[in-house]
Amino acid sequence: MRRPYQITGAVLLLLAAWIAVEALQLRYYTSLGPGPGFFSFWLAMILGALAVVMLLQATLGQADPAPPDFFASRTGYLRIGAVVLALAGTTALLEPLVFAYWLERLAVETASYRTFARDSHRLRDRLDDVLAVAAAR
After folding, report:
1. What angle do CA 47, 51, 57 make, to 5 degrees?
2. How many angstroms separate the CA atoms of 102 and 96, rounded?
3. Which residues are CB-contacts of 131 (< 8 A; sequence separation ≥ 6)?
4. Which of residues 48 and 76 earns the better pLDDT score?
5. Are residues 81 and 123 in the same domain?
6. Which of 52, 97, 98, 107 has the highest CB neighbour count under 10 A?
7. 86: region left, alpha or beta (phi > 0 left; psi from -120 to 50 alpha)
8. Per-residue pLDDT tens for 78-106?
């Protein structure tokens, strides 16, 4: 089980390096205090340190044998593939479908609110009706 941990540690170390480089392109400190690059830079440093620890433990530590069921069956891989496809589909369709729907709903609600607010006597009448029904119960 040494090789998977080494690969994971190396990937996390590369990810930490990339995040740190990107964070340094942001402002580290502003006149109000820490800037947008401060938090992401230090998170990248923590991730990098933990990745180095993981690499050292995997390389210098005692290797544990892989459990017999380390690799999933064909059914397991098909399930994983279905989940990944569902996540990719959701990500791809989220903005065009959901965002467009809620933007349209917002426009409809805003228009109906403006119409309703313009006719304020309707609002008073409906409020009176609701209060009368509530008082009757």
Report:
1. 145
2. 10
3. none
4. 48
5. yes
6. 52
7. alpha
8. 999 999 999 999 999 887 777 777 777 77
Domain boundary among 65, 86, 115: 65
What's the domain range around 82?
Answer: 73-137
Structure tokens, 87: 């996540």
| Whether 83 and 48 share a structural domain | no
pTM to 2 decimal places: 0.56
Looking at 47, 65, 83, the residue that finishes a domain is 65
- 47, 10 contact by CB (below 8 A): no
CB 48 within 8 A of CB 13: yes
**Using DSSP, how many helices (H) and how many strands (E) does the chain show?**
5, 2
Residue environment code for 73-83, b if the CB has 16+ CB neighbours within 10 A, otherwise e: eeeeeeeeeee
Burial (CB < 10 A; 0-12, 13-18, 19+), residue 38, is middle
